[in-house]
Amino acid sequence: MSLRSLMFGWEYPPLHLGGLGVACQGLVQGLIKNGVQITLVLPHPVPTESEDLAILSPTEKHVERIRVQSMLSPYEGSEGYAMRTVRMSKELQQIYGADLPEAVAHFTAMSVDMTQDTNPDIVHCHDWMTYGAGMAAARYHDKPLVTHIHATELDRTHFHPNEWIYRMERKGFQAADRIIAVSNYTKNLLTEHYGIPAQKISVVHNAIQPITAQDREPPIQAISSAPKPPMVLFLGRLTIQKGPIQFLEMAAAVHRFRPDVTFVIAGEGNMMAEVINRACAMGLQDCILFTGKVANREADKLYSQAACFVMPSLSEPFGLVALEAMAHGTPVIISKQSGASEVVRHGFAIDFWDTEKMADCVLTILREQPLAQQLRSEAPRSLQHLTWMKQASQVRSIYQSLLS
Amino acid sequence: MPLICLYFQVHQPYRLRDIRITEIGQGKPEYFDAEKNRAIFRKVAEKCYLPANALIEELLRTYPNFSVAYSLSGVFLEQCKEYGPDVLSSFQRLAQTGKVEFLAETYYHSLSSLKSLEEFTEQVHIHAQRIEELFGQRPTVFRNTELIYSNELSQIARLMGFRGILAEGADHLLNGRSPNVPFTPPTFTLPKEIGRVIHQQRQGGKTPEQITVLLKNYRLSDDVAFRFSDRSWVGFPLTSDRFTDWLVQSGGHSINLFMDYETFGEHQWEDTGIFSFLRSLPELWEKRGIRAATPSQVIDLWKEEETPVYDAHHAISWADMERDLSAWQENAIQRSALESLFSLEKAVKERGDSNLLDLWRLLQTSDHFYYMCTKYWSDGDVHKYFSPYDSPYEAYRRFSHALCDLKQRLETPKEKKPARGLLSLLNLTFKQKS
Known about the structure:
Oligomer: heterodimer
Strand content of chain A: 15-25%
Number of domains of chain A: 2
Largest sheet of chain B: 4 strands, parallel
CATH topology of the largest domain in chain A: Rossmann fold
Strand order of the largest sheet of chain A: 3-2-1-4-5-6-7
Structural class of chain A: alpha/beta
Low-confidence stretches of chain A: 45-63
Low-confidence stretches of chain B: none
Strand content of chain B: 5-15%
């Protein structure tokens, strides 16, 4: 039986490292391989520039892309949106609306208009911004609705949500015939904080694209032959959710024992200035490097050079970056408050607040060669079973269960 | 009718504390989690040791043909001293029935047989002495940690004076033969060096000509130990009648049922009916003319001319599906941990500090290495179930910190004896006075 899924998503292909874009791409490709036909509806602020047909590969022939004019982009709350609209011309602001609720309403209405002619079996939407569109489309087509949750407002704000976004999410969960959560961690959060019955939620963990030989960047050639000091890596947005301050606390504890260790903080975000100030106040200015936002290849290089990767997120629905680090053979220390800790067997999972213990794990990895080597060799191997093909087949069977 | 040989393993490790790198070399950090160890010991005592011992005592006193064997690890006995004198005295009451055989093992439930013959023989010796002190009998049958066994080990045990040894009835070594008869290891001569080391630990007495190997019937043992409460198992629910039928059908000289004592009440909870199952067996056996026998009695009652050979060229054990050493020595961190530990043997022994020697030996307990096992995807789940730590890597982290600290303590110069300090002080005062 051929299944047609009408999917409301974000960027395609992904612009960000880790996160929603990558997960959506992996899932879409996996579903196509599982024989599901997909119509993917994407919001995009500059439609003409991104209508790049060359990105489509022949194997993705099932993906029809409908771009909807919208100001929205992932991971922004109303604050970020306000900043963006200020920069727009008055005329555009009128089209898209000056506040977030209006923009979402617009996106929702247009999305339905544009998918009128599609004939889906199921409607599937990803994260809160698409839930309105998904609900409207499901109603219009009279088909089951799947809402996929990659990150909740509670994760992003450390449980200080924007009420409007929280309500949008809750509405989407309530309207859904089935919710797909990226982890049991997220499933529990939905039952505890959104009052959603557990039996309505299926968990499908994210997968990881296999690392090809070219992705394994050889470390930059050392100029001197002296051994390079070990480097500990943070990679993610500098927002409260990702725990950059916890990373600093961990770094300070490591620094007291091993002043030779360097730390790299890769990524940007609204906490950048605060993090830099705190690092200096802690006396870490000479051993921390801030790279700003990094591109894929730069990230690959950083993973390959790191002695270990630390993901101290306060609340992480999944945490694909941790798996990406593992795929590069980098030992990982991740927050227990994460979905990734459900699938990461070869690594350390520590409570995000226990930065002393995180530091202890880093120091142990640096001191114990057999441990570092085993993590380097076992971790990538343990990821081999976590493929998008397999995870998408779970999604397909969820579709089927809703249709039968 | 075959004899029924029941042997129960009783052991509790000292689990490691969440040691931090900041404590290493700073005075004398505690390596073990006293609170957790006490809590677990008491929990198991209430659920298993005390009720099971009371039941076994009653059965031993009621049924003349009922007997059992125990092997109590030295670290278990140590914990009895700290956390459970009531448990120890209940075992002593069992010993007083005269129908219980106590087996020998390494005192620290260690993997020393894999690494150091000298250390191994010392630990077996310490254990045998302790058993004799506590229970008034010198063990004559040996069981190695986790039933780790090989031809060489068997001969070593014989040279140490043991007449019997227990081993797993591994399919690949049995080759279709029944495990229900006594076996013997192939005869060969051990290198002179081995004989010399063993001789240093010998307590006199004659070296037995032969050593008898009793093999665990793992199918029937595991029916009780692992499958008893498994509702998806075809044998569920297991009644004493049906189980006795299976024992009789299995035939042979003796059915050797070897299992962890914690099976009763801890692995299989009381509400599974495991205690009533155990209670009903001896009565039923009495009725059907079946006798229980201890390992020594099984050996005594074997009168056949020919004893088949059990050829364990490579080490086997009773752990996991593999029945080899992989539960403790499969991955790099396990091997490195054991290697580093034993690289300290010479330094520890030359130091002559009994406290450091004891710490070093407590780190040899096999459980520390078992917790580091990463064979997750199949039966590794068993490891996870039994592990007190978050992960194998956490087990290694704690272990390596303890080892680092021990290493540093071995490197620091010996503390001067306080008596001498006092003396020199007195000397000084004396000089000043004069």
